[in-house]
Specification:
The protein is mainly α. It is built from eight helices and no strands.
């Protein structure tokens, strides 16, 4: 509301019109992807055995946080689908620490992301970046799962 009020008082009608067109453009792109992502998450929640989630991602062990971090590191999440995905996994038995680890690494890492970082910054820096995110994500998930949540 504040942004809209600012725009009305400080921008020309042409700028406001352009802003609204751009906003609508992004809504048209993101909303279908969000619906598709939530639909896929629902399907995954039904076909994925609960025993697998509890075995690999249950509890708050360092191993479970590491598996969650690796899942986040190789997955590619569409915008705003991480939370429904993690919620589904938590309903299947995922621990809170591993859930945090997945939420931390999912947006920051993905296979396409790895390739882009390697191309721009070089392979050595990409490896350091990926390993740093994996190690820190695992440790933060383990720590918060055991000492905070």
């Amino acid at each position: 509301i504040i942004t809209f009020g600012y725009a009305l008082t400080n921008l020309s009608k042409e700028k406001i019109s352009s802003w609204l067109r751009e906003s609508w453009f992004f809504v048209k792109i993101i909303f279908p992807l969000l619906l598709l992502g939530v639909f896929i998450v629902g399907i995954i929640g039904k076909i994925l055995p609960q025993e697998w989630i509890q075995r690999f991602l249950g509890g708050n062990s360092l191993r479970a946080s590491f598996f969650a971090t690796m899942l986040g590191a190789v997955s590619y999440f569409a915008t705003m689908t991480e939370a429904p995905f993690v919620d589904t996994l938590m309903k299947l038995g995922m621990g809170k620490g591993p859930a945090l680890a997945l939420l931390l690494t999912g947006p920051g890492l993905s296979l396409p992301n790895w390739l882009a970082i390697a191309k721009v910054f070089g392979v050595k820096k990409a490896v350091v970046y990926v390993l740093t995110i994996i190690v820190l994500g695992s440790l933060v998930g383990w720590f918060f799962g055991n000492f905070v949540f």
